[in-house]
Amino acid sequence: MNKSLFILAIVVIFTIPLGSAEYFGGETITIRELDTLDTDLFSGCRNLDINGLVQGDVYAGCEQINVEGKVLDDVIAGCRIMNITGVVEGNVIGFAQAIVIDGDVYGDVLAFGGTLRITERAKIHGNVFTGAGELKFEGGQIGGFLRGGAGDANLEGRVKEDVELEVGDIYFGPEYFAKGGTTLKLQKPIEEYEIKHLPKDLNVIVKEENMVWGVIFFFWSLLALLVVGMVIVALFKNFSKDYLSFAKTQLGKNIGYGVLLLILIPIAIIILVALILTIPISLILLAAYLVLIYLSMAFSALYIGDYILSFFRKEMANNGLYLSMLVGVVLVSLLCHAPFVGGLFGIIIICFGMGSLVNYIWHLKQTSTSVE
Questions:
Q1: What phi and psi, each to the nearest 5 degrees, are found at residue 359?
Q2: Which residues of the chain, if any, have pLDDT below 50?
Q3: CB contact at 8 A, 95 and 78
Q4: Are residues 154 and 138 in contact, defined by beta-carbon separation less than 8 angstroms?
């Protein structure tokens, strides 16, 4: 199977089954060793442990997910730590601070985060695409290609097809082998690196960055988000203050809800398009979804800024909202444009903002209903 990342992502989204599913929430969810779940699993929790059998897909937003048992379809998760030590017969799509593949994956692996570690026991039958701060390919086998980018890459295992990576620093182990060849995009010529065990068929491309357009886009996106954020604070000051108080109490759940919303809303849009007569509704929902994504970044920025400033002051005055938004927007912009892992930070920021905002609005609705 030789698919690009974009095609693979589209295929994954469009082939998500729309049948029955089990929905779990709470602190710790465990599928025990002898348990069998014959539907898809949607989970927003702190810890998810799969020791038994899941016959469908797994969609999770959590602190940590451990797959020691068997999943017959895809695992799609946004979390802090992802451990795959069992068997996944579909694809693994992970957004995490640390992702460890130490088992069998029969589909493709799309891994974005701080660290991707593929151990010597790992057997990935499909392709691997990664965007990580650190790539540790300690051994094991990849049955397809390995592509993407990493700040530091340590390559030791065997790849059946080709390897194409954009890296900052690179290390090759003596057992590294890529049958289809190895192509590296580097910031400087290979002669300037001290590298042992260079593969014979290594191809190096020295990448020259156009910094001007990158700087222009960075400041444009920063200022645009800042303007939106300041307007939100000015028009909805009390709402913003109450949102901050609410978001602090359900941090883990909000990220989980955001992951599920990020996945489920596009599915709903696809269904509405497929029904033909509801295409106008799908377009309205799509527009609302895009607006929600941008608002999620603004409210995440407000939360991050308030969290940082809380170390310097005990109570937030009314004008503190503007300062919190300013600090948060700068930090969010820097995180989203970080090399290799900026995409991961962007998704986490959107998921938290989306989950916390929708959860807070739902909380307001429930509160007003109970009062009536």
A1: -65, -40
A2: 1-19, 315-318
A3: yes
A4: yes
Cα separations in angstroms, 176 against 111, 120, 147: 20, 12, 15
pTM of the model: 0.66
Are the C-beta atoms of 322 and 230 separated by less than 8 Å? yes
User: Buried b / exposed e across 184-220, counting CB within 10 Å, b at 16+?
Assistant: bebeeeeeeeeeeeeeeebebeeeeeeeeeeeeeeee
Kindly list the domain boundaries of the chain, sorted by start residue. 5-206, 211-371
DSSP 365: H
CA distance 114 to 134: 6
CA 119 to chain CA centroid, nearest Å: 21
Distance, in Å, from the CA atom of 66 to the CA atom of 46, rounded to the nearest integer, reads 12
pLDDT tens string 51-67? 999 999 998 877 889 99
Distance of alpha carbon 277 from alpha carbon 365, whole angstroms: 30
The single-letter code of the amino acid at 69 is G
The three-state secondary structure class of 11 is helix
**Residue spans of alpha helices (H) in 41-161:** none
Which is it for strands 182-186 and 202-206: parallel, antiparallel or unpaired? parallel
